[in-house]
Amino acid sequence: MAASRPSGSPTVGILATACVAGLLAAWSPLLSVALGFVLLLVAIVAVRPVVGTYLVLGLTPLLAGMDRGVLVPLLRPNEALAAFVGGILIVRVVVLWLRGRRWRPRVRRIDLALLLLAFTSSVLPVLWLAARGADLTGDDLQYSVMLWKYFFLYLLVRCTVRTGRAVERCLWIVLLTAAMVAAVAILQSLQVPGVLSLVSTFYAPFGDQGAVTNQRGTSTLASSIAVGDVMAYSLAIGLGWLLTGGRHRGLLVALCILLVLGGLGSGQFSGVIALVVAVGAVGFITGRLRRAAVAAVPAAAVGALLLRPVIERRLEGFSSREGLPSSWVGRLENLQTFFWPELFSNFNFLLGVRPSARVPAPETWRDFVWIESGHTWLLWSGGVPLFLAFFYFLWTALRDVGRVARQRTDAIGTAAVGCFAALCVLGVLMTLDLHLTLRGSADLLFPLLALALTRPESSSASGRAVVSRPVAAPV
Are residues 90 and 157 in the same domain? Predict the structure, then answer.
């Protein structure tokens, strides 16, 4: 005989919840409303996990620039949001497993490349520190988990986005949110008072308001370099959609122009380089290089005209002796003074120095000196193993998304075009800065990689038909 279940337990649970809700409402109506909203959000994400991904993609660019501990202890608000959504999905998987549903993930080559990248940036450097008897600092721990965080974002998107229609929604969310970031960056770089006040209040890095009033568009990411990357990645999506016959072409054209302006508004030379590389990569992988260039030139000309004060200010910063921007000269001096001597002594480059990407500054006007070279950071943090793991990841990702971009013309193909361009930008700009784990930039790159490699559950759900596109030679 089957074991009887206590019929009154659901009623007891409902009554208990009602009692708690009544007490909260009497004590603090605002708290009860907030709790109700959170419970509603938990229920929606538990039933439709892809909604959690939509929230992460849409809110991360607007929250990533807030300092740790401002809204949530120890975490940035976007990190707390991702952890919240991820926690709901983990509980959902456990519940389904207890009910007998088994999920066997398919491990792909890119998954192994990402695991290798995360392992060589965390476990190996920490073990090497322990073997040398060196102290493991909080900075070391913080930097050693960065790539695991982005691997988690990749898995979050990969496990929840299962149809071409969902990929299309994700891409629109990315583009519209990037447009908001671009608008703030443009107005900030032009020193519009209301926008400056907004950015200074909520998005000043470490409370340094001087960092947001120097005619560089840090926007809601609190980093002008990250703004340049996000504009380039998003432009690649919009331009790729235009070149492959996407719908809402008028809106896409307007968004692409705004993203170009946002990239110029970042006030970073690396942002301009990112835009150029992104347009070239989109033209190459779609076989429409001339059309991509022709489409980008008018937007760049309009941007140069509208943002002339920003461009003139940045050109004034060129060093006449080195022929480089003064900020780049400072980066080179920091590398030569604080990092390269230790890195290249006693064969430290073989297994790295330590995971932390900064050292205490000797001057009183700054607290730390950061490694502003991606390749130097790879060797500093994880040595040759991390250096090789990065290029293996880059090669694997370019090959996989390049294949999808050449074969598909639906939303997944557009995501692959955008991801291919983003990876090309990453490969170029890692020479100048740590773009692999750059806040805001990496928060878009790794989810975009998952979207580009989506395998729809059914052909009817995948959007437009898959079409082979005989274009550029394989990567």
Answer: no
Contacts 24+ apart (CB under 8 A), 66-69: 66/202, 66/203, 66/222, 67/205, 67/206, 67/207, 67/222
Beta bridge partners of 368: 360
Structural domain count of the chain: 2
**Residue 461 clears pLDDT 50, i.e. is over it:** no
Q: Are residues 128 and 186 in the same domain?
A: yes
In the numeric block, which tokens belong to residue 132?
A: 């040398």
11 belongs to a structural domain: no
Q: With respect to residue 220, please indicate whether it lies within any of the assigned structural domains.
A: yes
Same domain? 164 vs 241 = yes
Residues 269 and 172 in one domain: yes
1 is a domain residue:
no
Range of the domain at 192: 109-323+364-461
Output the CA–CA distances (angstroms, integers) from residue 101 to 93, 94, 97, 456, 458, in the order listed: 9, 9, 5, 20, 20
Whether the Cβ atoms of residue 84 and residue 63 lie closer than 8 Å to each other: no
Give yes or no: residues 70 and 146 share one domain.
no
Q: CB burial class (10 A; 0-12, 13-18, 19+) of residue 345?
A: exposed
- What are the pLDDT digits (tens) for 247-298? 888 999 999 999 999 998 888 888 989 999 999 999 999 988 888 877 777 7
Instruction: Quote the percentage of the chain above a pLDDT of 70.
Output: 84
Residue 429's Cα: distance from chain center in Å? 15
Q: 164-220: per-residue pLDDT in tens? A: 999 999 999 999 999 999 999 999 988 888 898 899 989 988 777 777 877 788 999
